[in-house]
Amino acid sequence: MKKRIATVSLAGCFGCHMSLLDIDERILDLLKLAEFGRSPLNDLKKFKKRCHIGLIEGGCCNEENVHTLQEFRKNCDVLVAIGQCAIMGGLPVMRNAIMHSDDPLRECLETAYLNSKRVYNATNDIPNDPALPLILDKVYACAEVVKIDYQIPGCPPSGDTFWQTLTALIKGTPADLPYGLIRYD
Amino acid sequence: MNQNAGSAVSKICKKFDHNGIRILDILREVQNRLGCINGETMELLADELSTHRIEIEGLVSFYSFFSEERKGKIIVRLCDDIIDRFAGVEEVARVFSEELGIGIGQTSSDGTFSLQYTPCIGMSDQAPAALINETVVTHLTAKSARTIARDLKKNMDLSKLVKKKGDGKNADRLVQAMVKNNIRKKGEVLLSDNITAEAGLKNALKKKPGEVIQEIRDSGLRGRGGAGFSTGLKWDLALQAESRERYVICNADEGEPGTFKDRVLLTERANLVFEGMTIAAYAIGSKKGILYLRVEYEYLLPYLESVLKRRRKAGLLGKNIVRKKGFEFDIRIQLGAGAYICGEESSLISSCEGIRGEPKTRPPFPVEKGFLGHPTIVNNVETFCCSARILDKGSRWFASIGTDESSGTKLMSVSGDCTRPGIYEVPFGIRVSEILNMAGADDPAIVQVGGASGDMIGRSAFDRKLCFEDLYTGGSFMTFNPGRNVLSIVDYFLEFFIHESCGYCTPCRVGNVFLRERIQKVMNGLAEEADLDYLKELSNTIIMTSRCGLGNTSPKSVLSSIEQFPIVYASLIRESRDGTQASFDIQKALEESRRIAKRQSMIYDPVYGGSSD
Amino acid sequence: MSKSIVFKIDGMTVKGKAGQTIMDAADEGGIYIPRLCDVEGLEPQGSCRVCTVKVNGRPAAACTQPAADGIEVENDTLEILNWRRDIIRMLFHEGNHLCPICEASGRCELQAMGYRLGILQPAKYPYLQPVRPIDASHPDIILDTNRCIRCGRCIRASKYIDGKNIFGYVGRGINKQVGVNGKNLADTNAHLDDKAIALETCPVGCIIRKGLGFFAPIGQRQFDKASIGSDIENSKSRQKKK
Question: B509–C176: do the CB atoms touch at under 8 Å?
Answer without folding.
Answer: yes
